[in-house]
Amino acid sequence: MRGLPMLALAFVLLVACNEAGNWLSDTLALPVPGTVIGILILLAGLLATGRVPEPLRRVATFLLSHLNLFYVPAGVGLMGYIALLRRDLLPIAVALVVSTLLAMAVGALVFRWAAKGDDGEGME
Amino acid sequence: MSDIGFDLAPLDEIAAMAFWLALIVGLYLLARRFQQKVNGHPLANTVLLTALPVMFLLAVDKQAMLQYEPAGALLLWLLGPATVGIAVPLYANFHHVRRSLKPMVLALVAGSATAVISAICIGWVLGAEPETIRSLAPKSVTTPIAMGIADKIGGLASLTAAFVIVTGIIGAVSGAMLFNALGVKDERARGFAMGTAAHGIGTARAFQEHEVAGTFSGVAMALNGIATAILLPLIWLILS
User: Fold this and answer.
1) What's the rounded Cα separation, in Å, for the pair A7 and A97?
2) Nearest-CA residue of chain B relative to A97?
């Protein structure tokens, strides 16, 4: 099991990037969440290295494919906000549906407009 | 990190945490199997399918809440490092970003701003509570980042997580129909718009449709997480 310590090390690297991001976000009072800064730190590291170490790729892929498991506490936390949800049900429902459709339409139309004449490469 | 509850916890507390962890992971694996059975239908969301029985148990037994909390905190803590892992697929697809830079940047800014501003305006016009509006604003961003943004602007992270999931389901169910109605056939545009508006759940759907669409959707999801995290606090300052 020579691979296991390397996988553990890759996990520690992810934790370290996240904690560094959190620390920077708190210390500099940035509006950006620490995790996003952590993503940028790791991305910068990968761009500098020029490749993804295999253990890191495996750990990241595994964790990302089970991301939903880590949301479960957030789902459970909803229990505390049932009154608020009931009160604002209409604005929430309208905002979610209309805003999502609008954002998709705007995103797709702007992309198509801006991609006109570039390397479409027959991707249609 | 100190709130995980490891330090000097009595044995029965550790046992309770192990029990809840095993229970949640077990329910999650069952939910996953069910989702595969129905061919990844977006309504068969594993977060919902796992959280609902846990909520039921906690509602029935109020004492259980104290025992559940350390397990919940540990899982929630793992969300951070797991999300940092997005950098890996983002790096792997960096050549796409470089090649379609102009349409990506423009679609990203337009789609991201539309999602945020329209959600805030609709919530405000229809008289939602300020906490609700703050929690709605980052709804198009992948959950862990959206929860971080909600925290930063005074929203409720749990509420945001639920809005994000529902947003993803709406996007996944309606995206293909909407793009067809608009006559957008470019798989890059379809995927990118899907990932911008409907994050990971939309990305999973985009991959079912076309590999190029899925790849662009994944890139859009990661970029929009970063873009919204930077832009939303600014938009929020301007609107308020």
Assistant:
1) 41
2) B170
Same domain, A15 and A41: yes
Of the listed ranges A27-31, A45-49, A112-116, the one predicted with least confidence:
A27-31
Closest CB from B51, B82, B194 relative to A67 = B82
Tell me if A6 is assigned to some domain: yes
Nearest CA in chain B to A121: B186
Crossing angle, helix B64-84 and helix A67-77, to 10 degrees? 140
Contact B97, B104 (CB under 8 A): yes
Q: Which residues of B touch A94 (CB under 8 A)?
A: 122, 126
> Does any domain span residue A121?
no
Task: Please answer yes or no on whether B122 and A98 come within 8 Å at the CB atom.
Answer: yes
Structure confidence at residue B204 (pLDDT): 79
Say if residue A96's pLDDT is above 80: yes
A90/A61 same-domain check? no
Contact A104 B175 (CB under 8 A): yes
Q: Which residues of A touch B152 (CB under 8 A)?
A: 31-33
Domain boundaries, chain B: 2-84, 87-239
H-assigned helices in chain B? 11-37, 46-60, 64-84, 87-92, 94-99, 101-125, 130-136, 143-153, 157-182, 187-209, 211-239
How many angstroms separate the CA of residue A43 from the nearest CA in chain B? 5
What's the full length of chain A, in residues? 124
Structural domain including A32 reads 1-65
Whether A51 and A83 share a structural domain = no
Min Cα–Cα distance to chain B from A1, Å: 23
Query: Is there a contact between B115 and A109 if contact means CB atoms under 8 Å apart?
Result: no
Confidence tier at A43 by pLDDT (50, 70, 90): very high
pLDDT lower than 50: segments of chain B: 1-2
**Residue A44 and residue A101 share a domain:** no
The predicted pLDDT at position B95 comes to 81
Q: Is B107 exposed, middle or buried (0-12, 13-18, 19+ CB in 10 A)?
A: buried
Asked if residues B237 and B119 have their Cβ atoms less than 8 Å apart, the reply is: no
